[in-house]
Amino acid sequence: MPSVGAEDLTAFAIVAYEAAGTPPEHARIVATHQVGANLVGHDSHGVVLLPTYIDRIGRGHIVPVARPEILNESPTTVAVNGRWGFGPVISEWTMERLVAKARETRIAAGTIREQSHVGRLADYPLMATRAGFIGLMMADSGQSAKAVAPFGGREARLGTNPLCIAFPSDLPGPVFIDMATSAVAAGKLNLARAQAKPIPLGWLLDKDGKPTTNPNAQLEGGVMLPLGGPEGHKGYGLSFAVETLAAVLPGLGFGVDPKGRHNDGTFMLVVDPRAFSPTDFKAQVEAFVRYLKATPPADGFDEVFYPGEIEYRTEQRRRRAGIPIEDTTWRRLGEIAARFGISPPRTTRPE
């Protein structure tokens, strides 16, 4: 398995997207988000998606030159149509606008419709934390193909419907919760398939409604399960809330349109803690984290992590040692390089 430095991998992705017809600034944004996902260990949302995005450009499902259109706006809100542009481009633009509003009004909310896959959700709420604000984002795939059964069901009626909440703090690393409301993110299933690895029980039911460890079962009529296992009604409830705010509220609807394409509807919220907290909120979050980390570890654990700490440590390690690229993804990146006549990324550790 080769490893690649973050700068080299980003440079390759930028050139690949530009070769596929993406404006340089949009190519930089998308590449940075994907390699950022690799850096923190979420390889399912990293450059493994580069061939998929390029394929969607070719099929007209992503419009690489598209810029956001404001549908409705007030001092504290904005509703955006992404015009089928890159999710990272549209979502980053919208979050920047909400942060600017929150500086004036202390709170701001927005929705997006008709944009492509947004990638790793945490990237956008973390933009708010860098301004000292709390950031929240939810995402849903609108009327595109569904993957998750409601609790007690065996047919897909929901998306993986992730949500993220990020908090500013005085810690060196970010503090955030980023999770699918399904038992697992769809990208992690794709990664398991690429690596030809079995998955844990509780992620999927096969076409006969039986639990399975085969990641290919989803492609053979199976269905993903909501978060929570035997308590899956909790994940189902969260998924319902996400889809209502990120799809129904922006006007994407629900269910499946057979002619639909991937359409990440989103709901975003930015809050200035100073509107509510009489103390230094960032210092209090740090103190809370240190209080939790002082918990004696249970059997089988070495320490208690705060939300986001594992990603922070992974990023520090991968910035030093390089990003490991599993063999299937490496081969596909090589095919992209050959297709466009560009150089593949340089490796820090050979295959």
Explained architecture:
Helix content is 38%, strand content 16%. Helix 1 (6-19) packs antiparallel against helix 2 and helix 4 packs parallel to helix 5 (123-129). The radius of gyration is 20 Å and the shape is globular. The N and C termini lie close together (5 Å). The chain has 2 domains: 1-64 and 312-351, Malate/L-lactate/L-sulpholactate dehydrogenase, four-helix barrel (Hypothetical Oxidoreductase Yiak, Chain: A, domain 1), CATH 1.10.1530; 66-183 and 225-294, Ribosomal Protein S8, Chain: A, domain 1 (2-Layer Sandwich). Strand 3 (77-85), helix 4 (87-105) and strand 4 form a beta-alpha-beta unit. The chain has helices at residues 6-19, 24-39, 50-58, 87-105, 123-129, 186-195, 232-248, 281-293, 309-321, 327-340; strands spanning 3-4, 69-73, 77-85, 107-115, 134-140, 163-167, 175-179, 204-205, 211-212, 223-224, 265-271, 323-324. The model has no long low-confidence stretch (mean pLDDT 95). It has 10 helices and 12 strands. By secondary structure, the protein is α+β, with helices and mostly antiparallel strands. A 7-stranded mixed beta sheet has the order 2-3-4-11-5-6-7. The protein has a 3-stranded antiparallel beta sheet with strand order 9-8-10, with no helix packed on it. It has a two-stranded antiparallel sheet with strand order 1-12.
